[in-house]
Every structure is written in structure tokens, then in C-alpha cells.
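User: what does the whole thing look like in 3D?
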Amino acid sequence: MDLDSSIKGVHRGAVDRKLIPGQNSRFQKQVEFIIEVDKLKHVLRQTILMDRSRRENSAEHSWHIALLVFVLAEYSRETDIDLFHVIKMLVIHDLVEIDAGDTYCYDDRGREDQAEREKTAAERIFGLLPCDQAEAFRSLWDEFEKRETPESRFANAMDRVQPFLHNYFTNGQTWQANNISSRQVHERMRPVRDGAPDLWEYVNNLILDAVKKGILNE
Amino acid sequence: MDLDSSIKGVHRGAVDRKLIPGQNSRFQKQVEFIIEVDKLKHVLRQTILMDRSRRENSAEHSWHIALLVFVLAEYSRETDIDLFHVIKMLVIHDLVEIDAGDTYCYDDRGREDQAEREKTAAERIFGLLPCDQAEAFRSLWDEFEKRETPESRFANAMDRVQPFLHNYFTNGQTWQANNISSRQVHERMRPVRDGAPDLWEYVNNLILDAVKKGILNE
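Assistant: Here's the predicted 3D structure for the full assembly of 436 residues, as C-alpha cells:
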């Protein structure tokens, strides 16, 4: 990877230094990965911050949902889940957006080739790491996407609940701007039912309330 | 907490809804906390992003260091540490800055009353949560600050390494702007020695290199 071409302003050459004897190449890859993932801070989502001052980026979102796990763990459908595993998935789940961008969840056209774009991104980005770590990260990302394990179901629930709260508590600004209907939101929130049924009840009530208030189309 | 006065634009009243039977007050507190911590995305640090386009905020920083744990775990001084515990500390460690602001690590005057400001902030912010969670979060934060356990030492190492890499790989822009010396950086990086000695060697070499390149004062 040429650092100069991939990240404007990064001082070239420094990560080539062989500073940890016996771990040169491994450590160099790890540092390059750490530098590369900084780009997630530039990936803007449709979600706006609670004070409506600006759009949220994917790094901020990833942090927020990791915190949600600690606060909302008691609402997981499965009580015997590995929360550390949940956090790992959430911290890395959006890294593919560095190449693939954030695809708005209601953008049907964008979602057509989303899986393919993100797979290519996963190859490159996780591939920056040493092999064992690349495989571990890729495996976590695949698990998150498949939503088949209790951990991935709860992780996906957190990933859906957080932007939903932002939408609701900012008077549906993003819903309105994109002409989103309650049916679409309801469908989008289904992973909450699968991963955290108590929260699903709450989400449903807020959807009804949003329609009643006129901040979400019926 | 009055949502309208604390967060501009948040739709008032909605979190008052009693939607989860038997857990009304508890869940309401959790949602209020989730909304409140969004403010961490507005707390700007001295660190600049790798492409030098803007300053980093504390939510982004918190996410980045959580990711560092997964990538750099093998460099922990102690091999038998609870990495989940490390992540928990890192995800919540900067929340006090919502009230106390980010104190630049080389701002000696700002650091004089930093501990007191942050303690007051911890009382209020963690205090938004239900009691058991407030205590758990406060305990994690105290542990991080004290740097006495293997987990907190590794967590602190990650918290220091990430901005250091940003400084080095952006040609010391923040060091230069604040007239920082290598002695100050060396002192600031000591928790890396305590928590991740192999990285300490790397950090020291980069400090020497930074001085040689003229991007850090001697």
C-alpha cells in the first residue's frame, strides 16, 4: 500500500521502519491498518446528530452502538450471549464503508449492488492486516451480515435502534427529507424484533407515535 | 433532565412514554443516557485526522482506540487480561468530557482542575443511568483513571498510542502548533511502557525520528 496515494498528508516512509525485531512485517501491517481505518471518520451517514447540527459519520455511529450494548444488554432475546463478541462485530462492521460508502438503508437502487461492493471492500481493508487477523475480522463481519447467531442478532438490533432513536428524537427530519413511510421503517427495524423483542415493542410504539405526530408518513 | 434544555432539537416528551411495562423508569433513564452521550460527538480534541482535514472528536477517538485493542492486543504486557473489560473502559472513558471538555494533555493549567471537573461530570453523566449501571460505569471510569489494573494499563496505552500515531503521521502538526518538546511527549507516553512495552520501543524510536526530521522540538 502506498501511504501517500491512500491518505493525503500522511508522512510517507515511517511505517516502513523496522522497529520491532522479529515482528517487522506484521507490525507494519497493523500500523497501516490503524492509519487506513481513520477514513471511516469521513464516511457520512444519513442520520443526523441529536442537535441536528450535522450528519453523523460511521466512526461515531460505531462508537455509539458499542455503548448501546452496555446500556441495553438486558433486552437481548438471548440471555446467554457473548457481549464481547457483539462489541467486536459492531466496532468493525462499518469498515467496509471506507471503500463502499454508506448505502442509505431505504435506497433500493444503491442496495442492489451493495453486497458486492462491500465484499470487495472487505477483501481490501481486512486484507491490510496480518493473515490471522484479516481472517478473524472477515469472519466477524460475515457473521454480522448473516444475522444467524444470537450475538449477530443482538448486534444488528443495536445497529438499527440507534439511528431510529436519532430519527425519532429529531422529529423525523431524515424520514421527511427522504419521504420514508412507516411501513419502510417497520420493515427496516425487524432485526430489533429478532435480537431484542422488548425494544421492538418500544420501537413499534414510537413508529405509531411518529405517524400520529406527522413526522413520519403512514 | 429536561431534554429541551439539554439538547437543542430533541423532540420533547417522547422518552416520558411508558412503553415497557414494569421497566418504565429504568428504560426511560437508559434512553435519556443514550441521547445525552451523543454530545461526545461535539467534543473536539487537539488531535487532527490523518488527512489533516479537521480535528478529531472524542467519539471518533473512542471508537478508534477500541479498534486498536483488537489489532494490538498481542503487545499487552500482561497476556492474561480481560480484553472485554479493556474495551468497556475505552468506550466510556471520555464521556466526562461532555461536561468537562477535552483537556489538552500538555495544558498544565487546564490539567490543574481537570480531575475535579471530570469527577463532577462523572457524577452527572453516569448518574443519568439506573443506579446499578451508573455504579458499573463509574467504577470502570475510576479504574481507567487509576491505571492500577492490567486492563486499565493496557487501555491507557491504547489511549496514548492512537493520538501519538496521528501526531507523527501528520508531520507533527499539533506538536508544532503547541510548541511541544520530545521530553513532554516521552513523559506523556509512559503509560505505553507500563501497558505495552513492545509498543513503547516503537514509540521511542518514532520520537527520536520526529526530532531528527524536525517535526518535534528536542
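In plain terms: DSSP finds 13 helices and two strands in chain B. The first helix of chain B runs from residue 3 to 6.
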